[in-house]
Design goal:
Largest sheet: 5 strands, mixed, barrel
Strand order of the largest sheet: 3-4-5-7-6
CATH class of the largest domain: Mainly Beta
Distance between the termini: 42 Å
Structural class: alpha+beta
Strand content: 15-25%
């Protein structure tokens, strides 16, 4: 961190909280994109302070707190020491930091952003559909229906994503267990939504369930137990 830099709070506003760099005052109104180039963050290591629905607040050893957007399935608790590979999204109105457990997840996230109509939020939700191999496998075998479970993902966007990325992720194998598990998850999510739960909550809870060799009814019972805890 450059000398004299002060930072407090969210990644979406980290750089707006920095006051002086090498004796010069900066703000989002003062050469924003030149300033943002100084804030390229590749990795965060520190203590979990708070875990939100799709965010985690991490305090580094230097005392700086970063709020990162993460997958729903990312598991951590206050007090845990974690390391996340990061991607910084810069726009005219905000700066948002996204965190990933592996460099492979981060690289795939960046690949998803190359598709027209896929922004950071959609890309993160796609990663939250399942394990990285499972998501890549679905794209590789041309399973656009798998992607439609993502909130805001239309049929045309899902099909475009499959067409553009199929050759880049490799030919997917329609493995029985993987195909079955993804089908069970979709049915469970649909069942929870029909019961009145939001699609976001249904997806989050369902992806934490054990689906291997389980029927829709068995996984649905697991999901309901998790919701009512």
């Amino acid at each position: 961190m450059p000398a004299g830099m002060i930072a407090i709070g969210k990644s979406g506003g980290i750089c707006r909280k920095y006051r002086f760099i090498n004796g010069k005052k900066w703000s989002t109104r003062h050469n924003f994109f030149s300033f943002s180039s100084l804030c390229m963050i590749a990795l965060i290591h520190g203590t979990v302070i708070e875990r939100g629905n799709n965010t985690v607040l991490v305090q580094t050893n230097g005392g700086v707190g970063y709020e990162l957007r993460v997958q729903h399935s990312f598991s951590c608790f206050p007090g845990d020491i974690i390391t996340l590979h990061t991607y910084l999204k810069v726009s005219e109105s905000a700066m948002e930091l996204y965190g990933f457990e592996t460099t492979d997840e981060r690289s795939f996230f960046v690949l998803l952003l190359s598709v027209k109509g896929i922004g950071p939020k959609s890309a993160l939700n796609i990663l939250s559909l399942g394990s990285l191999p499972e998501v890549k496998n679905a794209i590789g075998r041309g399973d656009s229906a798998y992607l439609i479970a993502v909130q805001g993902m239309g049929k045309k966007t899902a099909e475009r994503l499959v067409v553009e990325l199929k050759s880049k992720v490799g030919q997917g194998r329609d493995e029985p267990s993987t195909a079955f598990d993804s089908g069970v998850l979709r049915d469970v999510i649909d069942g929870l939504v029909a019961m009145g739960y939001s699609k976001d909550e249904a997806r989050r809870v369902s992806h934490d369930c054990d689906t291997e060799g389980k029927t829709v009814e068995e996984v649905l019972r697991q999901a309901l137990r998790r919701i009512t805890r």
